[in-house]
Design brief:
The protein is mostly helical. Helix content is 78%, strand content 1%. Strands 1-2 form a two-stranded antiparallel sheet. A hairpin with a 2-residue loop joins β1 and β2. The radius of gyration is 17 Å and the shape is globular. The mean pLDDT is 87.
Length: 267
């Protein structure tokens, strides 16, 4: 039964990853939080486990999603190369910061962040991207990657909710922003997951079937299904209009944000 739950989470998360370029983390984290709570894990580490496990699964969904986007020629690999060093360093540091924060604080921070991004995306849904705008210099892109990496590890996401708006703002159309964001999810996920394993292993709490803050069974179950369904999501993304994609993305983020704020306040 436990594995079936993880496979179902993976199916939903993978589709979302391909569709929005968010690595599925914004779906995986709240569902894992509920599942781990029901399984009776130590409340003080449940949120950290949901984040760490989410990042580990994003390694797989990113590979699947970016392969589908690359075939359509939508990934800006030169931009990826500029962002990647900052993403790696930032994601590892972000895992360390998340380790210091309490589960309740993490919930409130993630909830507020999701709603803020949703508002920004929805407000700009019908605004055309200014293609005359140019991306900043390589060094500035690397710095932006560092900020995105830190935040992504704290939020347990592949960085899409930060990378996509960043690229949009600098003249990159939605489909290419989503595709490039999917590629950026890979270095974030690898560095972030390793960080959560490392910092989690330093804690005194013994977690069954886990390496640090990464739950092995959940990682396997979610990864298997998400690898398949991420390709379906990527195909759908290229069939939708940019405005519709942004509105769907904003609705998803709002739902997740309200859920986490509610959980954080009612504790």
């Amino acid at each position: 039964m436990e594995l079936i739950i993880y496979l179902a989470i993976g199916a939903i998360a993978g589709f979302t990853a391909g569709l929005f370029g968010v690595g599925g983390g914004l779906i995986i984290v709240p569902i894992l939080y509920v599942v781990f709570t029901q399984m009776g894990y130590d409340p003080s580490v449940i949120m950290h486990m949901a984040l760490g496990t989410s990042l580990a699964t994003i390694i797989v969904t990113s590979i699947s999603s970016v392969t589908a986007h690359h075939k359509k020629g939508a990934v800006l690999w030169n931009v990826f190369k500029n962002l990647a060093p900052g993403l790696v360093i930032g994601a590892f540091l972000g895992a360390g910061i998340a380790d210091i924060l309490s589960g309740q604080h993490l919930q409130l921070i993630i909830g507020a962040f999701a709603i803020w991004v949703a508002f920004k995306m929805f407000r700009g849904a019908n605004v055309q991207v200014d293609s005359s705008k140019q991306l900043p210099s390589a060094s500035k892109q690397m710095l932006a990657g560092g900020g995105i990496g830190v935040a992504s590890a704290i939020f347990g996401i592949g960085g899409g909710s930060l990378t996509v708006p960043y690229l949009n703002k600098n003249g990159v159309v939605m489909q290419k922003a989503v595709a490039t964001s999917a590629a950026c999810g890979l270095p974030i996920a690898i560095a972030g997951a390793l960080g959560f394993m490392f910092f989690g292993a330093q804690e005194q709490t013994e977690i069954k079937n886990a390496i640090g803050y990464v739950h092995i069974y959940a990682f396997i179950g979610i990864s298997i299904m998400s690898f398949i369904t991420a390709k379906v999501g990527a195909k759908v993304a290229h069939a939708l209009s940019p405005a519709m994609l942004k509105k769907c993305f904003a609705c998803l983020l709002t739902t997740v944000g309200l859920y986490f704020i509610y959980q954080g306040i009612t504790k």
